Amino acid sequence: MKGSIIIVSFFVVGVLLGRFVDIPNLLTAEEPTLYALYALMFLVGISIGSDKKALEALKHQNFKIILVPLATIIGTLAGSALISLVISGKSLTDCLAVGSGFGYYSLSTIFITQYKGAELGTIALVSNILRELIALLAAPLLARYFGKLAPISVGGATTADTTLPIITKFCGKEFVIISIVHGILIDLSVPFLVTFFCTV
Amino acid sequence: MIIVISLMVCGIILGYAFKERNLKFVQKLINYAIFLLLFLLGITVGANGDVMNNLHSIGSDALLITLAAVAGSVLCAWGVYRFFFMTTK
Does the predicted TM-score (pTM) go above 0.90? Predict the structure, then answer.
């Protein structure tokens, strides 16, 4: 809990700074975030490689690993379909297309803006950023109350990169391989599902 | 993403090679890197006028879809965890 609050405060301070202070372009550019991510992944690699339990987990993987991305896709689509009944002015396929971003906001926003216009594109951007934020901020709570796969499933397409460190921290290193495989498979599904729901 | 994964593979090989050494400082560095990443992500979100100004009008739809999608994933992931993963522990 303490870890999560510290993380949230770093984020909130960042938002306030970005909103109210004239931040040099250097900090809002993609590069610093990218390099921080690279450093993080390298460090996470070291901590996995030096962990003897992680190797054991890798040996015991089997077909079950495929169930995790399946659960993510089925759950996300079911939830998005249900909520389309509540949201006025948005069709079933609109909601399914936004949901199929799985947190991959850059790609899904581009696709949806192209096929469905800027409004739904912006909704996709905000929705998928929110999904990534929820995955980052709620990971400890999700892992505690809904099992170690819940943060991975919520992380969607981001579990092979941005949310991997946080998943490693709160789910344990034995879930790292699952998280990476999940992230890669969901990543691959995004362009297919988004274009499918935009064109049907 | 290829760069990210290759960096991690390099880390894993290094970590494996030095696994008998004391690597506790790595965990500390990971925490600092997470803080930095979230801070930078916050700045990007705060400085993005499109995201901040449209949050009121477009935000509610986006929030509803996200919450529904997240709730669905959590339920399915919980089911898969209970029936397929808990026994392996």
Answer: no
